[in-house]
Amino acid sequence: MHLVTLKVADGKGLSSSCTASVTVTDKTAPTIDVTKHECVPYGEGNGNMANKITVTAQDNCSINVIAQITKVEVFNNGGNLVKGNGVYEISKNILYVNPNGTGWSLKITVFAEDEYGNSQIVTITKSLIKC
């Protein structure tokens, strides 16, 4: 709840004011954005490159909304789900994917919630590039 004081004055120096109570209710879920992937150095000095994909969230009322990657599925050029170590790594809201060939893709599931409990879950499909 916020208190707002309104004051008006006319050209003759007469004025009046009143105070009103205003309550803002946020019912809008955050929006989730995913950056275009880019090839970046990956690993400690081994010369490997990986796709870097960043997820972010924005909200109409909350300032600090964090996007969380909750699920990652990587598919090879035959459409088969790839499992195993070293295929991808999540660091906070950044995903690093190291495809082992061309024509790979992925599905990312992302969750975001604002301070008022409004949440959004999206699943995004992206093509990957061989770096």
| DSSP helix fraction | under 10%
Q: Tell me about the largest β-sheet.
A: 5 strands, antiparallel
Quick one: how many beta strands? 11
The assembly state of the depicted protein chains is single chain
Explain this structure.
The chain has 131 residues and is an all-beta fold. The protein has one domain: Sandwich (Immunoglobulin-like). Strands 3, 4, 5, 8 and 9 form a five-stranded antiparallel sheet that branches. Strands 7-6-10-11 form a four-stranded antiparallel sheet, with no helix packed on it. Strands 1-2 form a two-stranded antiparallel sheet. It is 0% helix and 54% strand. A hairpin with a 5-residue loop joins β6 and β7.
Q: How does the SSE layout of this entry go?
A:
Blueprint: E1 2-9, E2 15-22, E3 31-34, E4 38-41, E5 49-58, E6 67-75, E7 81-82, E8 88-91, E9 94-97, E10 105-113, E11 119-127
Antiparallel strand pairs: 1-2, 3-5, 4-5, 5-9, 6-7, 6-10, 8-9, 10-11
Characteristics:
131 residues; four-stranded antiparallel beta sheet; five-stranded antiparallel beta sheet; 0% helix; mainly beta; Immunoglobulin-like; 11 strands
